[in-house]
Amino acid sequence: MFKKLEAVAEKYDELTRLLADPSVSADHLKYQKYSKERSDIEDVVKHYRSYKDLLGQIKEAEEISQDKSADPELRQMAEAELKELSPRIQQTEQDLRLMLVPKDPRDDKNIFLEIRAGAGGDEAGLFAAELFRMYSRYAEKKRWKLTLLDMSTTGVGGAKEIVAQIQGKGVFSRLKYDSGVHRVQRVPATESSGRIHTSTVTVAVIPEAEDVDVQIEQKDLRIDTYCSSGPGGQSVNTTYSAVRITHIPTGEVVACQDERSQLKNRNKAMKILMSRLLEKERARLDAEAAKDRKAQVGSGDRSEKIRTYNFPQSRVTDHRVGISLYKIDAVMDGDIDEFIDALAAQDNADRLKNL
């Protein structure tokens, strides 16, 4: 690890020298390239040099504390310094290890959030709508932009399916752990006997694909237009602005009706389709790579139960990290960072083992 860190530090110094070169400063593209390269490794180098400074302080304090001829008061101060420096060096080393874990290249991408009612009838639909509100509130707190793209409602105020786009800094890095089955346990409003029902909702968090990521042949698409059924004014419901795209080889169907313009809806639907197809391919490759090893945090597969929301006990439990929070109202209002932080920490720890 330290050979790698030393090489990174040497690279940083070389880039610093290059950026001070007048010939490089005159070349805008080259200067921009070197600036980005140095910026990408700056935190690692700072932590590494801080680590080396701490090692030097520890060595000096050890020499004083072990020197029998040294002043007793000075030796006592050195021993106290060692007690203070020991946890700091351990934490700095751990931080360095985490910095060397390869970053998920998708972490900075925007996402498509897909929520679908599962088992449980009307109650599942109601909870799907509540989960959408939870993520909407979370996005609001993070100052991300959420756009509702498509929604299929039930007659009791619930939702069969919701598709939304969330844009902002680090969206996928935070929400990627929420793909899976979310289970709710509570007494439905329509239940006269007071029995607790269990319902499920599936959540898919799909990183937005770039045009270069996926190539789709036009002959493989069937595109239908229809009148939008949602709110949005008179023209929305009277023009064929809503778009449904079917990818014939896979049977994947995407609908979008949030815009008044058919062209805008078509472009958004294509973006969702590309993202779904890319995610399917990534899941296939991940499944192949995972045949000989157990997934540590959870595969994100939609069949995997990841979290239970128990309303009578005011409890929310994440089954992958074994954390239960007894504040269901706060969680449903978008307070989900404790779960995400724990999952991210476990993910980093597991990737460190494989480093």
Characterization of this structure:
The protein is an alpha+beta fold and about 350 residues long. It contains ten helices and eleven strands. The protein has helices at about 1-20, 20-25, 30-65, 70-100, 120-140, 170-175, 235-240, 260-290, 330, 335-355; strands at about 110-115, 145-155, 160-165, 180-185, 195-205, 220-225, 240-245, 250-255, 305-310, 315-320, 325. The strands form two sheets. Strands 2-3-1-5-4-9-10-11 form an eight-stranded mixed beta sheet. Strands 6-7-8 form a three-stranded antiparallel beta sheet, with helices on one face. α1 packs across α3 (about 30-65) and α3 (about 30-65) packs antiparallel against α4 (about 70-100). The protein starts with a helix and ends with a helix. Residues about 230-235 and about 290-305 have low confidence and may be disordered.
Concise summary:
It is built from 10 helices and 11 strands.
Low-confidence parts lasting 5 or more residues at pLDDT below 50?
231-236, 291-303
Helical residue percent? Answer: 40-55%
- The succession of helices and strands, N to C, reads HHHHEHEEHEEEHEEHEEEHH
Extended strand count? 11
Radius of gyration: 27 Å
- What order do the strands of the largest sheet run in, or round the barrel if closed? 2-3-1-5-4-9-10-11
Counting DSSP H or I runs of 4 or more residues, the number of helices is 10
How is the biggest beta sheet arranged?
8 strands, mixed
Strand content bin: 15-25%
Shape: flat
Mean pLDDT: 85
Distance between the termini: 10 Å
Classification by helices and strands: alpha+beta
